[in-house]
Write a structure and sequence with these properties.
The structure is a single chain. The chain is an all-alpha fold. It contains three helices and two strands; from the N terminus they run αββαα. The chain has a two-stranded antiparallel ribbon.
Length: about 190
């Protein structure tokens, strides 16, 4: 699944959340948020694989350019040997071969730089998207962990049905250490 789509889904989840009156906080559905985070963990390696494919394609193009340069050099050498008796033509062939080699090096450097720039841009964009999503998730978790319940007067016929929630650990999540699944639980 595309990481951008997952970021959009996470943003929609935050937008759909209940805003806490008088604060900047929003309550979000924890189960849906965790589901999106799980999908992001799966999707990020796909994005990295995509970047690896781009790098592989760059290497393939470089190899083809180097082969072409070697072929041109070989042709220039052969041509030079054929024209050894004609001194001026030999000089011209050498100059032409050097020019072609230099052009091939310039083209190779250009292709390499473009591929590197593209990979860097893709990885930077992925990092930015992931950092923004992570910050939103942290804010939602922090809100859910430290929020005090608000008492409200509700008419008996308009009271919501109480659905028991599973017991959730109140220990803050530490994102600086690798995730470890609890025994018998979800990640």
């Amino acid at each position: 699944m595309d990481i951008q789509h997952l970021v959009d889904r996470l943003e929609d989840l935050v937008d759909e959340g209940r805003h806490v009156f008088g604060t900047k906080y929003t309550m979000v559905d924890e189960e849906r948020a965790l589901e999106i985070i799980d999908q992001m963990r799966i999707s990020i390696p796909e994005e990295i694989e995509k970047a690896a494919r781009v790098t592989h394609e760059r290497d393939r193009v470089l190899a083809a350019a180097n082969e072409e340069a070697a072929r041109i050099v070989q042709q220039a050498r052969q041509h030079s040997e054929d024209l050894i008796d004609e001194h001026e033509m030999v000089k011209q062939a050498k100059v032409r071969a050097e020019y072609v080699i230099e052009q091939a090096k310039i083209e190779t450097a250009k292709i390499t730089q473009e591929a590197d720039d593209y990979v860097l841009a893709q990885l930077s964009q992925l990092e930015h998207q992931f950092a923004a999503s992570l910050e939103e998730i942290r804010n939602g978790i922090e809100l859910m962990q430290y929020q005090e319940p608000v008492a409200m007067e509700v008419e008996p016929e308009k009271q919501p049905i109480h659905v028991p929630r599973p017991e959730v650990s109140r220990e803050p999540i530490n994102f600086d250490r690798p995730a470890q699944a609890p025994v018998g639980g979800r990640i």
